[in-house]
Amino acid sequence: MSSLLLVLIGVGLAYLFVGLRVARRSKTAEAFFVGDRKLGAGLIFSTLLAANIGAGTTVNATALGYSNGLSAWWWVGSAGLGSLVLAWWIGPKIRRRSAEAGLRTLGDFLEWRYSPGVRALGAALLVPGSLFLLAVQLTAMGLLMQVVAGTPYWVGVVMGGSIATAYFAAGGLAGAARVNALQLVLEYGGFFLLIPFAILAANGWGAIVETSPGPDYWRFTSGDTAGIWYLAMLGPAFVVSPGLLQKVYGAADDRAVRIGVGLNAAALLLFAAVPPLLGIVARAQFPDLADPQLALPTLLQEGVPAWVGAIGVAAVFSAELSTCDAILFMVTTSVSQDMLRPLRKVQADEAWLLRFARRAALVSGALAIGLAIGAPSMVSLLTIFYSLLTAGLAVPLVAGLYTDWAGPRHAAAAMLGGMAGLFAARIFDLPQRSPWLSEAVVGLAVACVAFLVVAVVTRRTPKP
Question: Among residues 78, 74, 75, 71, which one has the least CA distance to residue 216?
């Protein structure tokens, strides 16, 4: 067994220990789902930032930096800009609504504001996508450990999936938030530590610039397949993501939302420069990689001193774990609260719901592990899921918060229209014609049109 694998096992056990200790406080469904609505700004900041730094913002963003240069900043930068909207516009208002009405999930909000049918439609869109997204995160973890620790692919998938599932199933939001605070120290510190050592190993910044492909590589707004259009494609997803919104539900007050989510946005805007820089340095050191997705693992294994690489691997491992628990939170709460609880003929009590939520977490984690092992080529689904959130949920959420006349027909039209636009963009390959015609952009545009059409042809009646 390699020393690096032992380090990762030790890190994983430390997270598991913290999560299990906090689990003793999660004795009610309210604690499991929304942390008893007692999370302060510090825990909101750490749990959101840890959730937002995962495979997409590390391995994939570094690959984009390797291929496209500085314009890869917009991958993570779009998440930071979207988070500013969540901090100052959407977050405080939906937190107040959730506290006033006792809401625990985004599905609860959709039913409270519209109807049970809209809630069911939202869950039908969200649950399968969340499960596949969790599998994508586990796929990245398996590939990382295969490259840097020499383990079989399935070992990394099973190890990462089991740890994240165990500590989340035990402690819910309250437990995950405290584990995330610990993970964040290693994630953020580890990635910033990598930069100077990687630059030194590449013989300095001057050598890196000299070996770069050309001027377009240093353009900030656009470069090949990366650029400012990521803001339209990804930014809204970080405003309407159910996993992030449900963490906001757990905030103690509006001040905790504004400060915690705002600090998360600022940290993302700063962190956005790190993966592109690492990708640029990796290209200078290893210009002939067969797959850009190997840029970060290769840099950690061969491009920095061994002890720095070990810290970096632990940081990536932690980042992927924290995102896994955030996605598991999203799919578990939606399955238990939005899909199966309404099917019970007798109102479910809190003890039953807590037991069921934990079982749903264990089953969801196991299904995602199986998907990741059986279909390891699902990485392309990452952007599809973000597009799904934007196209299907953005219009009903914003309209539900800021209008009193939008009803179930408006919401359903926007959700179904968004899905139709998304699939049409994919079928007709519109993103290949222009990056501004991505699935998310087209889906959101069609959702807005569908919402407005229903608004025009139906009588506006105030919500009772």
Answer: 71
Helix (H) or strand (E) segment spanning residue 11:
helix 3-22
Instruction: Round to whole Å and give the CA distance between 292 and 31.
Output: 42
Residue 464 pLDDT:
46
Q: Domain range for residue 255?
A: 3-375
One-character DSSP codes across 357-396: HHHHHHHHHHHHHHHHHH-TT-TTHHHHHHHHHHHHHHHH
Cα 127 to Cα 417: distance, rounded to the nearest angstrom: 19
User: Residue 296, exposed/middle/buried by CB under 10 A (0-12, 13-18, 19+)?
Assistant: buried
pTM of the entire structure?
Answer: 0.91
Instruction: Give whole-number Cα distances, 251 to 93, 181, 323, 326, in Å.
Output: 12, 15, 19, 16
Beta bridge partners of 223: 226
- Indicate whether 439 belongs to any domain: no
Which candidate, 154, 158, 189, places its Cα nearest to that of 315? 189
As for how many domains the chain has, the answer is 1
Which residue from 115, 50, 87, 10 is spatially nearest to 327, judged by alpha carbons? 50
Can you list the residues of the chain whose pLDDT is less than 70? 1, 24-25, 344-348, 376-383, 459-464
Residue 199 corresponds to which tokens in the numbers above?
């630059």
CATH number for the domain harbouring residue 224:
1.20.1730.10
Spatial distance between the Cα atoms of 240 and 106, rounded to a whole number of angstroms: 9
Helices 61-68 and 295-302, packing angle to 10 deg: 90
How far are the Cα atoms of 21, 249, 313 from residue 93, in angstroms, in the given order?
Answer: 33, 10, 38
